[in-house]
Amino acid sequence: MPSAIGKLRQLFPKLGPEDRDGLGEGRPFYLIMLAVLVAMYIQTLYATPGMRVPAILIPFTGIMLIHIVLHWYSFYLTMRPQLSLPYLILQGVLAFTLVAISGNIGLSFGLYFALIGEAVGIVRDRRVTVIAVVIYLGLTLYHLIPQVGWGGISAGALTVVPITVFIITYVVMYQRQLEARYRIQSLLSELEVAHRQLAEYAVRIEDLTLAAERQRMARELHDTLAQGLAGLILQLEAAASHLADHNTARTAAILDQAMLRARQTLAEARRAIDDLRSERPALGDLSAAIHHEARRFTQATGIPCSVEIDVLDGLPAKTCEHITRIIAEGLTNVALHARAGAATISARRHDGRIELELKDDGIGFDARPDAGQKGHYGLIGMRERARLIGGKLNVESSPGKGTIIRLSI
To answer: In a 3-state reduction of DSSP, which class is residue 396?
Structure first.
């Protein structure tokens, strides 16, 4: 018994989403067919009183029930290509038997035309469909001959063929409409997926934008307030040293420079805030800006800084700003960490690129990526600025051998 149930279940395979949709769309068609078959059954019994004899009624009713049940489950049975032809043959045999028992030509029209529509609309093998349609038409004409004779077969064909063409055309158009609807539903599903992906991408872009803005603000804060305060600390330390030696003239001069630097730092901080709000790049001459940074470095530290620069005109304002910030950060590092006796800034054009170099003769440091250096936010900001202008920044240094910062754009 279990094996029989298992074999029965194999006849009704699991439906996919598209198959379930197709079955749902076809339910009205199957209900109409069921109603038509029941109506033909009742009309045959009404028109043929001899059919009401139990010896004829019972087998006729049983065969009609089998025929109707097979129609109802035809969608499942024809999903397996190997079952399509046996199904159509079995249904043809049942229809032939029903017509032969009843002798009702109207029943033959109804049964065979229903099978023709079913073969065209459900069976997926076109070759099987054509064979089935031809056989059903032949059976219809075969049952028609006893009623009209061979002489009237041409007139009967003129009735049967147009009805067949109409049924085939109607079923094909209905099938194409369903296929178009499936395509539209598939496109809508793809659009929904694309919409979800776009929403996810928008969230990612927003996160990346916020991260980029945080990095930018970190650079601006470091390159304005942090650098300015670092320079002020150096100048105040120098002033305190000279004051301890009772060198009031030098102390006053350094304090004047410190006040000037404090005003410049405040102005740069305000400019950075304005830049963050307005997104307008600062304008200026790159050569003049580098010379200015070198002079301010020397005034604050007393370390000589020579400048050798080719003509650097025609650069975008944002590129000039980033280069100036990189140079300023490099000089700040020299002042804070290098213990250098001299520094050099050079810039030149070569093979379509701009090569900048900041060199000092200080104590150097271990510049390897795995050296475990912490707190080098200035170097991180310099590399970020280099990437933003399509450049590359390299740091060459080792303990006791000074430091060289190279920027290639």
So the answer is: strand
